[in-house]
Amino acid sequence: MLRKLVLATAACAVFAAPAAAAGPPSLNVVLSPHATGGADGYMGVTMTMEAPALKAGDPLVRLPIRLVGIPTPTWPDGAVQARDDQGPIPLTTTEEPATPQGVYRRWIVGRATVGNVVVSYKAPPRKVTAATNNGPLFDLREENGGFAGSGNGFFAAPVKPGPWKTHLSWDLSGLAKGSRGVWSLGEGTVDAVIPSEVLQFSYYYVGPMQSYPAKADPNFDFYWLSDTPFDADELGGKMKALFGSMAQFFGETGGSYRVFVRQNPYLGTGGTGLARSFMFGYHPPAKPTVDSLQGLLAHEMAHTWPAMQGDHGETAWYSEGMAEYYSTVLSWRAKAITTERLVQTFNERADAYYSNPYVRATNPEAAKKFWTDPVAQTVPYGRGWLYLQQVDAQIREATAGKRSLDDIAKEIRRRQEAGQAYGVPVWLELVGKEIGADKAKAGYALMTGGGLLVPPANLYSPCLVVETHPVRPFQLGFARGSLNDDRTVRDLEPGSEAEKAGVRNGDVIVETSDINAVRKDEALPLKLVLRRGESTTTVTYLPRGAAAEGYRWARDPKTPDAACRF
Fold first, then answer.
1. How many whole angstroms separate alpha carbon 87 and alpha carbon 554?
2. CA 255/CA 278 separation, integer angstroms
């Protein structure tokens, strides 16, 4: 299963507010989907910007060409058109400087604009196959008479950051009767005051869909376009109940939330959380169950609240670690999962942490590889999760059980909502007040410096005990980027199991077994079908290194379930 990736963008933390009568300029968006199942399908976009007053040479709209390895459509010149009160506006394109996350294209106006500006274009969906690399769910795809994807895959958003008084509506005349159009911020016609980036860092879902509840709910909705191998109503019901429990814990009294489902033609399951919503994809032949999907969905949902101010490389341990921590313990507290399932999840996460080849990397070192190596992307998950458990144990010990990590998480959330500082200095200050400043700084330095984190022995006792459990680190044997769209092996490691099995630089990877499943199971070999010149060969090997230090939990059979506390 692909560990989901949430971009460090303000859009993920922006919640739409009701549109005001005056103030920000208006932005009218009409989406006109045409799903044909063939090469001529597209998402039509017509966007009217209120009097942007641009000068010749100013940027009008922007769209990523590639974002975290996910490509957007390649549009010919003239695909994006603009006009104003004086008629058509000539447009040219330029690319912004590349960043580790990707590259953006800008459309530049050739003359000064007069009055309102109307931008229009038809965005084709991305074509994916069984050979497509699993990744963040940013691209726009056609599915079963509809479309599913984020604005990053098709929405050329205004370069002016806003906020914009946005009015979004759907023209569904190009779809089957009974189709519905949903945006992360609402179903049907939606009015919201938002910055430009929310138009891209949010989801669009349209077509002859099903949902739980069957009719739009003001608080929580769960949508799917294709029949699922799992009971979608049951999963939607469980997620709605969990959302209510999580929202109450973090002190949220209003707001809506949406979950979108789409199918993958390739191996792997994963999700991506954006503004007040998340989307997850699954491979139908794998036949995922409600039980197997709950952890993924709970993690995505937990991202709605915990956040830390600062650069992603500096704070990912908090956002990902908190999502890992509270997706599990809040599910247990809400009786959504059993103690046995909680222990199983704990041990899966512990094994993933100790077997990660970057386990000893510092936070800055891991951050440098974050956007190019999915294995490095998982470092903040396990590292943050185990560090937070250590902090929880220290706070409980220092306060004789009167306070816990819950109090710190809620206070940082309160400060975020109040517009106060909520970065790393605040974290250290709050933790320092509980356990002592020196101890707080030392624990933080160990975590960020790549020190090996050990589960606190007494945190879950007597219910759980900590045991040593050596693990064999995952070693693919060549550059992880070789599994991206070019599918060509490079940077083969001399002496690796991959080389011993016969993998060579320049081999084209035609097919792989589920690499994410292989990463989770030390005993599971990796199978590669390779093309070398005119011939094709199959190699199988165990992508593991020598045994390394590791730990996990075991249930004390003498302790009744009623005595367990998480």
1. 71
2. 15
Residue 392 CB partners (closer than 8 Å, separation 6+): 404, 405, 456, 459
The answer to whether the peptide bond before residue 560 is cis (omega within 30 degrees of 0) is no
* Structure tokens belonging to residue 533: 């010149």
pLDDT, one tens digit per residue, over 452-491 is: 999 999 999 999 999 999 999 999 999 887 887 678 999 9
For 480-541, which CATH class?
mainly beta
DSSP for 198-238 reads HHHSSEEEEES-EEESSS--SSEEEEESS--SS-HHHHHHH
Closest CA to 44 of 191, 154, 205: 154
Query: Under a CB-based contact definition with an 8 Å cutoff, are residues 330 and 249 in contact?
Result: yes
Q: Where are the domains of the chain?
A: 10-302, 312-454, 480-541
- Residue 133, pLDDT score: 78
Closest-CA residue to 159 (of 27, 256, 345): 27
DSSP letters, 324-341, are HHHHHHHHHHTTSS-HHH
- The model's pTM is 0.86
- CATH fold match for the domains 10-302 and 480-541: no
Q: Where are the beta strands (DSSP E) in 438-548?
A: 464-468, 508-512, 526-532, 535-541
Query: Two tokens at 429?
Result: 């200050």
Secondary structure letter of residue 548 according to DSSP: B
**Fold designation for 312-454:** Neutral Protease; domain 2 (1.10.390)
Residue 508 makes CB contacts below 8 A (sequence gap 6+) with: 487, 488, 489, 530, 531, 532
Cα separation, 373 vs 480, whole angstroms: 6
- What's the pLDDT tens digit per position in 260-297? 999 999 988 889 999 999 999 999 999 999 999 999 99
| Domain 10-302, architecture per CATH | Sandwich (2.60)
Q: Identify whether the C-beta of residue 160 lies closer than 8 Å to the C-beta of residue 189.
A: no
Question: For 201-210, b where at least 16 C-beta lie within 10 A, e where not — what string?
Answer: bbbbbbbbbb
